[in-house]
User: Fold this.
Amino acid sequence: MELGMIGLGRMGANMTKRLEEHGHDIKTYDPKVTSTAGSLEELRDQLTVARTFWMMVPAGEITENTFRTLIGLAEPGDVIVDGGNSNFHDSQRRYAEAKERGIHFVDVGVSGGIWGLEVGYCLMAGGDHDPVAQVEPVFLALAPEDGYAHVGPAGAGHFVKMVHNGIEYGLMQSYAEGFDVMNSSSFDLDLHEIAGIWRYGSVVRSWLLELLHAAFEVEGSHLEKIRGYVEDSGEGRWTIAEAIAEDVPVPVITAALFARFASREEESFAAKVTASLRNQFGGHAVKAVEAASSQAQDPRA
Assistant:
C-alpha cells in the first residue's frame, strides 16, 4: 500500500522503516529532513488517488497546523490519519471538518515507543468503517499479531489511548514507590537483581518491569546517573478530567500525576508552609536553609 508519512521523529521514522520492511510504498515529509518531500503539497503530488496521509507529529499546535494544511490540499476520498497523542475531542472536531469536505479522518492511538520497530505497535483506531478498512493493511503491518483493533467511531482511538496512558501512569508509579521502599530499607538489596527475578513467575511481571531491569543495568543499581524529574505529555491530565466529568473515581492515576508534579520541584513551598505551621502550633523543630557561601552572598565577588 502507498502512504504519505508526515513526521520522522523517533516514532515516525521507525514506523516508516517497519512499513517498508513489510513491502509498503512510503513517501515522507519532515521539514527537518532534507531527503523527504519539500512540502506537504509535494508529498500530495507523490501519492496516487485515493491518498492516505499519516500525521506522526507532536500533539497540539503542530498537529493542528498540519491538519489545516492537509484539508486544504487533500481531495474527496483521501484519508488523513492522526497517529499522535491528540486529545480525542480535537479528533472528533477534525473528523467533522474533514467530513464536510468529503475527506476521511481516522484517529489512531499508537503504543510501542522506540521498541515498536522490532516488536510492533499496539494500534487503537477510531473512525468510519470504510477508511479504516482502506488503511488496515498498514495497521496490520505495524502491529504485532492481535495488536490492532478498530475500537469505535471518530475519537475512540485517541480516547482509548488516553486511558491506556493514564493506566501507564499508575503502573509506573506503583513500581516507583515499591522500589523506593526497598532502596530506603536497612537491607542491602540488589534492586537490579530483584527486578530481574520478578520478571519470571511473579504476579507483578510485565514489560515495564523488564524495562526497569534494563534501566538498572544501564543507569546503575540506584539509578545514580539520572535525576528524578518526570514530565507528563497530557494524557494523564485528560484521563482525570474525563473521569471527573463522568463521576468516576481514579485515585491511583490522580496520585501518579501529582507525584510527577512533585518530582519537578527543587523546593516545595507547600512543605515549607506545613513545616512552619507545625512549628507555630506545636513548637516542632524546623530545618533552616543552609547559608550560601560568602562569595555567593557578596555581589562584588
